[in-house]
Design goal:
Elements: E1 18-23, H1 29-37, E2 55-59, H2 60-66, E3 85-89, H3 95-99, E4 101-102, E5 105-106, E6 110-116, H4 123-134, E7 139-144, H5 160-165, H6 169-188, E8 193-195, E9 208-212, H7 221-235, E10 247-256, E11 260-269, E12 271-273, E13 277-282, E14 285-296, E15 310-312, E16 314-316, E17 319-325, E18 338-342, H8 347-364, E19 373-377, H9 380-392, E20 397-402, H10 407-419, E21 425-429, H11 435-443, E22 449-453, H12 456-477, E23 486-497, E24 502-514, E25 518-521, E26 527-537, E27 540-542, E28 544-546, E29 550-556, E30 576-578, H13 582-591, H14 598-610
Parallel strand pairs: 1-3, 1-6, 6-7, 7-9, 8-9, 19-20, 19-21, 21-22
Antiparallel strand pairs: 2-3, 4-5, 10-11, 10-18, 11-17, 12-16, 13-14, 13-18, 14-15, 14-17, 23-24, 23-30, 24-28, 24-29, 25-26, 25-30, 26-27, 26-29
Helix pairs in contact: 10-11
This protein binds guanosine-5'-diphosphate (GDP).
């Protein structure tokens, strides 16, 4: 294969491979990206988490500079750069994987899996590995934070293998120990890894190269870039060959000052030209519109840098592009969906059909439960990311949608109110709520809660708080119905008043007694004697008393019948119990589960027999 030639690039040459960075939180994904891009986006992002998609082009001359000292790559003796550059996706983590797809497959050509050498494999690392395997995406492991090894001497402009060789014996030994640990953990995941310099060309595709790196000092970063290129060229060669068939995914839709409504897209392959007719997936179905102007960011800068857009008549994949349409239609497009280019008239209808199917497939693939919250997000990718998070948080969802929250969404969400009030909730991620929808939501009793946020975990925090608030409210409302089971005996010599209000010392034999509980005498055909109006423990008022406690209680006659008297209507030796009920048990089950012990439930069963509750 010939070397890439900018001036004479031809069909069949490599395009830029698309690179994603994955790994557990805090392993250094963002720092790695920063180092690769030599920018700093960590600050200024919502919650420090990069949530919007952009991409960075790393051009050939930059690659050449940064890999000039690389002595060896895994699948060849030296780096022979045949690609025009790298397209690095700005969003670290899983989201970029689900966001970046076309016809169901991931658009990422080679991934960098970042592992913190000090921590080894962590949960999200394992999840990332699963994802990479599923998508059959080759990857390179960046064994990051090597600078944290004791007495590490940094030398970022040198092949990292040599840098390691030059360390003191103790440092080398610790590196080896930490590496061996990761090696074993990877073996458990059924992955064969090797330090990249130990790999041979024959092992391409089967063995995974590891590059020791420090995103902070820069050690190994040149090697990492070289290894990514090596893997791209040797493992996915065919996939990264340029061809004119347009493969493009919409990443984000937004209005830019001075430019108007635009979409950010990743053009994976093929070329886009001003005037091309685009077919896009919209909130109300597929639609067609024309490209007015194509822009790209300046080399090696974030797509989001302001006012730095370069105008183009024509761009070739792979690249991140900003597209402005002829009208404002473009704002209807759904992010996470492909953009098709219709160069013949009959292609418009064909691509619309494709998109319709794709939208359907994407939504069908997301299984929902029969009860749960209503989830809405701006893009398919962010929707998937949100749902994944909800699953790990064990929050059920019953319905999903993409785009702004409309009246129709509220109507759907309201059906949950009959099921289970706590699910009368819309979790809206990074989408606006129409005024009509808000008004409709408030008209329900209880109102449908709409939580909006642009940070995923804020939504689950809000939902959790909603559950807590609702529990508190319901507990308060049901206080009089939810009677806790309790069994008690009157203590001898502790009868302070025999008749209304009865004041006696009791020992709680089982269960828990709470203020408000109606009290009965099982020995006297479950005769009711009133309700507990106060409990005192060691002279202080308390709300409840548990098994084993000795307390003084006041029982007021609330029965509506004549007051009952100790020694006349019942004896001081008669045991007392709380009067439980069917509704009460249901309320306990639903809202007071956390307050009930196993023993309490046992007593409940016993008292159900006493009161002949089915
Ligand atoms: P992310 O959550 O994976 O994106 O991780 P970050 O890039 O935000 O890094 C997490 C923390 O680790 C930050 O405090 C970084 O400064 C630090 N960090 C990242 N890479 C390195 C590294 O190579 N060496 C050292 N010593 N610290 C690092």
């Amino acid at each position: 294969r010939r070397k890439y030639n900018k001036e004479q690039a031809i069909e069949g040459d490599f395009r830029c491979p698309i690179v994603c960075v994955l790994g557990h939180v805090d392993t250094g994904k963002t720092k790695c990206l920063d180092n690769l891009r030599r920018t700093n986006v960590q600050d200024g992002e919502a919650g420090g988490i990069t949530q919007h998609i952009g991409a960075t082009n790393m051009p050939l001359d930059c690659i050449e500079k940064r890999t000039s000292f690389v002595k060896k790559v895994a699948f060849g003796d030296k780096l022979d750069i045949q690609i025009p550059g790298l397209l690095i996706i700005d969003t670290p983590g899983h989201e970029s994987f689900s966001n970046l797809r076309s016809r169901g497959s991931s658009l990422c050509d080679v991934a960098i899996l970042v592992v913190d050498i000090m921590h080894g494999l962590e949960n999200q690392t394992r999840e990332s590995i699963k994802l990479l395997k599923k998508k059959r995406c080759p990857f390179v492991v960046a064994l990051n934070k090597i600078d944290r090894i004791y007495e590490w001497k940094s030398s970022p402009h040198q092949d990292v293998r040599k840098t390691i060789d030059n360390q003191k014996e103790g440092t080398k030994n610790q590196f080896k120990k930490l590496y061996d640990n990761v090696y074993t953990q990877m073996a458990v995941e059924e992955l064969n890894i090797k330090l990249f310099w130990e790999l041979t060309t024959e092992e391409a595709g089967e063995w995974i190269p590891i590059v020791p790196t420090s995103a902070i000092t820069g050690d190994g970063m040149g090697n990492l870039i070289a290894q990514v290129i090596d893997s791209a060229q040797n493992i996915v060669g065919k996939k990264i060959t340029y061809n004119p068939g347009v493969k493009c995914t919409v990443m984000e839709v937004k209005a830019i000052e001075g430019l108007g409504k635009s979409i950010d897209a990743i053009l994976v392959n093929g070329c886009l030209q001003n005037g091309d007719q685009m077919v896009l997936a919209g909130q109300q179905g597929p639609f067609a519109t024309h490209i007015r102007q194509i822009y790209t960011p300046p080399a090696n800068k974030d797509l989001r840098v302001k006012n730095a857009w370069v105008k183009h008549d024509r761009v070739k994949g792979a690249t991140g592009v900003k597209v402005v349409g002829r009208g404002d239609d473009i704002e209807k497009s759904l992010a996470g969906m492909p953009m098709y280019i219709a160069r013949k008239d009959d292609e418009v209808e064909y691509f619309k059909g494709e998109l319709e199917e794709e939208i359907g497939d994407a939504l069908d693939a997301i299984r929902t439960s029969s009860e749960g919250v209503y989830v809405q997000a701006s893009t398919l990718g962010s929707l998937e990311a949100l749902l994944e998070f909800l699953r790990t948080e064990k929050v059920k969802y019953s319905n999903i949608n993409i785009g702004p929250v409309n009246k129709r969404d509220i109507m759907k969400a309201s059906t949950m109110l009959e099921h289970d009030e706590k699910y009368g909730v819309v979790l809206a991620f990074d989408v606006p709520v129409t005024r009509d929808a808000q008004e409709l939501a408030e008209s329900f009793k209880p109102p449908i809660k709409i939580f909006t946020a642009n940070i995923i975990y804020h939504l689950t925090d809000m939902f959790e708080k909603h559950l807590k608030d609702q529990k508190k409210r319901r507990q308060e409302e049901l206080k009089e119905i939810a009677i806790f089971p309790a069994k008690m005996s009157i203590m001898p010599d502790c009868i302070f008043a025999k008749r209304d209000p009865i004041v006696v010392g009791v020992k709680i034999d089982d269960g828990q007694l709470r203020v408000g509980a109606p009290i009965c005498v099982p020995n006297k055909e479950n005769m009711c004697i009133g309700a507990v109006s106060s409990i005192e423990s060691s002279g202080k008022p308390v709300d409840s008393a548990k098994k084993g406690e000795e307390v003084c209680i006041k029982i007021e006659n609330t029965t509506g019948d004549a007051a009952k008297m100790i020694g006349r209507h019942f004896e001081k030796t008669d045991g007392l119990v709380t009067r439980i009920s069917r509704d009460g048990i249901d309320a306990l089950k639903e809202w007071f589960r956390d307050d009930m012990t196993k023993q309490d439930w046992k007593l409940c069963i016993e008292l159900k027999k006493t009161f002949k509750i089915l």
